[in-house]
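Why do we care about 3D structure at all? Because function follows from shape, and shape follows, mostly, from sequence. That is the central idea of this module. The next example makes it concrete: a single protein chain, its amino acid sequence, and then its structure expressed as tokens.
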Amino acid sequence: MVWFCGAVKVVEHVEITDDKSVRAWLEKQDHQTQVRFAVRCSLRALPALALWDNATSSGLSLATLRCILISAAAGTCPTAEMGRLKSAALSAVNAADTSHSHSPAATAISAESDALTVDSAGSAALSVDSTFYVALSATNTIPSTDSALSFAISAFSFSFFAETAPSTHAALYSATSADANTSTLWPDLWGERTASGLDDEWGELKAQWVADSADWSFWIEWYEAILIGTPLPWDFTFKIAAELTEDEWDAGQTIVSRRIGEIRSKWQLEKEIERLREQLSLANMRSATIRKHNNPPPLEDEAELAAETMTLIWNELDALETEIAKPHAEPSVLQHIAQNLWAIAERITIYCGGKIDAALEAVARELGSTATKWAIRSGVAYWISTQEGTQSVAKLAWQYAEKLLSGG
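And the structure:
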């Protein structure tokens, strides 16, 4: 399944200078590219939240991040996955009055009277909110009409209101123009041109998060990866956007951080299971090849052992996938499977350390050095990779169980 960020149509060089030029360019783009553009505008405005000292303690930071994460997911996921975001988008809308003046991320700041806060931090929140409404149309939560285009333009406009320095405006124009002229899926957020004060704002917002009692390390990692153009895997961040419940978001960052830890641990385990299954499939092909030929007993024995070992591993992987697919996986079951996989890996280690040496010597006596080299390449490499892959899955299954037991 391919995860992407829209497909920018670059017909001729585009210079973004104002709302009019943005509209002219966006009208030629597909909906997901509009979402992508709006997301990147609001991500540039995000650090301006730091201009309000209470952005984190009031809940504004988390509400903003919630909207922008769902929006980024809508701008990068395959069309077939869009439906999974619908309930997440609806719950975010229900978290606040859905009128534009009290939209999800901006609700927390609506009572603030300080002009600088309203003009800058508030505009950053509204840039995110505008992006969110573009994303809502992508998930069919609101009609996909000209309103999506208008909200994408609003995201661009509010990103300028969030930054008051002329040097920053020049950097914003440069960065948004680069977005309109690149086919790169997700380049660094500011391109080659940066502006004084931007690093300071991000540093201040990060300091708010670090000083808070909750753990904000994921959001810091997530944003800094986007800044340099190496975002965290989109399928991982999509799972966060799709799986966090309304109650968990409403409970605050401590609970959100715990759930993200669980989601990440499960995602890593799923990826490692997938890799090990691929290894086993290749190993099965190798064993089948050996069995088709008239091989000396050592290689026949190895093929037999490989088939037996693969069956054991396959059975444990099937049980593991069945368990982690449940709404509430049982940690004791995960630990039991992890122990079984570890025992299989140890069995492979013993075989590699002893019996395989004798087998290779026997092959050398019967077929000569060429066969020995082939056996070393195909035999030892197979067993080592299988042992390492099995151990890795066992470790991650155990770690996921510990995450669940500790509450993240």
